[in-house]
Design a protein that fits this description.
InterPro entries: CB, DNA_brk_join_enz, Integrase-like_cat_sf, Integrase_catalytic, Integrase_DNA-bd_sf, Integrase_DNA_bind_dom, Integrase_recombinase_N, Phage_int_M. Belongs to the 'phage' integrase family. The chain has 436 residues and is of the alpha+beta class. The protein folds into three domains: 91 residues, Integrase, DNA-binding domain (Double Stranded RNA Binding Domain); 96 residues, Tyrosine recombinase, N-terminal domain (DNA polymerase, domain 1, Orthogonal Bundle); 212 residues, hpI Integrase, Chain A (Orthogonal Bundle). 48% of the residues lie in helices and 8% in strands. The strands form two sheets. The protein has a four-stranded antiparallel beta sheet, covered by helices on one side. The longest helix is centred in the N-terminal third of the chain and has 28 residues. The termini are far apart.
Length: 436
């Protein structure tokens, strides 16, 4: 360590003179004071010998203590055989390289996005017109984002995906696990297409191996079960509107989402017509349903117990239609053998001999009943508002079979009136067979 020659007091009292001054502080450190004519600026210099030559180098320092620390560093370098001038340049270059690397890393981190941000981008660009968007948001908010939402997308591995899926399987929600995996795959493929990630972390996960194989439901309520359902309905504790919704799904073959979103402006009781707009239909096709006397009676009952001026089935706050899942949950909870898992004591009030049934099974049951009544398959498909799978037929056959559909809806309405005891003056079942 070099011995300092100048005290702090002496340093503070240094003044410029007519000529430039170089005042030694020891160890090769000099305090340089410019002449009065040059402004009297104070700076620091270091003198040393290298290869037999005397070398002066400027020390960038704002104070004498800082200059002394750098002098000591330079002297250590000399003892190690390093040239202070060269080493100082290398240090500057290293610092600059470190700064550039740090800036590059910061830029990289800023460019990275979390799964939460990816989901928002996916929703706002690819899913904005999806009719099931509310349900997708609900599933991700409940089962996906709490697990991986805060992780950076590029860090997501197969293990993160299986963690989400396995939690759903543990809960017994195997079909939900399958649907969630399919949706996550769509989201990560979107990320690949946008160059957010290079590889899809779900690519090597087979749906069947990771979750369960899809099952095609074939549950159909028999006519005896429909009779029994009528007798069991009062014990279920439903409000009148829920009962009406069940009979409408059975008599009109509508989807649960279509009945949940139904608005009074689309119901023409006088002309016995219910128009389902394209935005409420699963396949995006508007659908006009002729109301049989049986179906019309359900709408009239709904009008009698009217809940809302806009929605046939409003949510509790009256701010919109009821959730699509509401009817499903209500029906499911009344077929549950474990009472503490339900919100109602009538947990087995709607159990039927053929096994558990869902709102979609009512749609299938109505279509099957139409077939039993002799309605042709083409007409039933029109009543279901299914999209034609055959491309040629879809392009060239636009017949709507309006009269045939009206007759089909009247037929099923008459039969349901008989089965439920709501109409004693109905033509006997035998005469229907010859209509088609």
């Amino acid at each position: 360590m070099a011995t300092n020659k100048i005290t702090d007091l002496a340093y503070r009292n240094l003044k410029p003179a007519d000529k430039e001054q170089n005042i030694a502080d020891g160890g090769g450190l000099y305090i340089r004071i410019r002449s009065i004519a040059e402004g009297g600026a104070v700076s620091f210099r270091f003198r040393y010998l290298a290869h037999g030559k005397q070398i002066w180098m400027t020390i960038k320092a704002k104070s004498l203590p800082e200059a002394r620390n750098k002098r000591n560093t330079f002297k250590d370098w000399l003892k190690q055989g390093k040239n202070p001038a060269d080493e100082a340049k290398l240090t500057i270059e290293r610092n600059r390289a470190d700064q550039l690397a740090e800036q590059a890393e910061l830029a990289r981190l800023e460019a990275l996005i979390s799964v939460n941000h990816l989901f928002e981008r996916w929703v706002s660009t690819k899913l904005i017109e999806r009719k099931d968007l509310p349900e997708i948001k609900r599933m991700f908010a409940k089962d996906v984002l709490p697990v991986i939402g805060d992780l950076v997308v590029t860090e997501i591995k197969k293990g993160h995906i299986t963690e989400v899926v396995d939690e759903l399987i543990k809960r017994g929600s195997k079909h939900t696990a399958r649907n969630v995996l399919k949706l996550m795959r769509q989201m990560f493929r979107f990320a690949v297409s946008r160059d957010v990630i290079e590889f899809d972390p779900t690519a090597n996960l087979a749906l069947a191996d990771t979750t369960v194989k899809p099952t095609e439901r074939d549950r159909v309520l028999s006519q005896d079960e429909i009779k029994l359902l009528k007798t069991k309905m009062p014990d279920a504790g439903f409000i009148p509107s829920t009962e009406c919704a069940i009979w409408l799904m059975l008599s009109t073959l509508c989807r649960v989402g279509e009945i949940s979103k139904a608005q009074w402006q689309h119901v023409d009781i006088q002309n016995k017509l219910w128009n389902i707009p394209a935005e409420n239909s699963k396949n995006g096709k508007a659908h006009a349903i002729h109301l049989s006397d049986f179906a019309l009676a359900q709408f009239q009952r709904l009008a009698e117990f009217k809940q809302h001026d806009i929605w046939l089935f409003s949510n509790r706050g009256g701010t919109g239609h009821v959730c699509d899942k509401s009817l499903s949950k209500q029906i499911d909870s009344r077929q549950n053998p474990v009472i503490h898992q339900c919100r109602t004591k009538a947990n087995q009030s709607l159990v039927l001999p053929g096994g558990k049934w869902t709102p979609h099974d009512l749609r299938r049951s109505g279509a099957t009943l139409m077939g039993d009544l002799g309605v042709s398959g083409d007409v039933i498909e029109k009543c279901l508002n299914h999209s034609e799978e055959n491309k040629l037929k879809r392009v060239y056959q636009h017949q709507k079979l309006i009269d045939e559909k009206m007759a089909a809806w009247d037929l099923i309405g008459e039969r349901l009136a008989v089965l439920t005891g709501d109409n004693a003056n109905v033509l006997p079942f035998k005469r229907i067979k010859n209509l088609y």
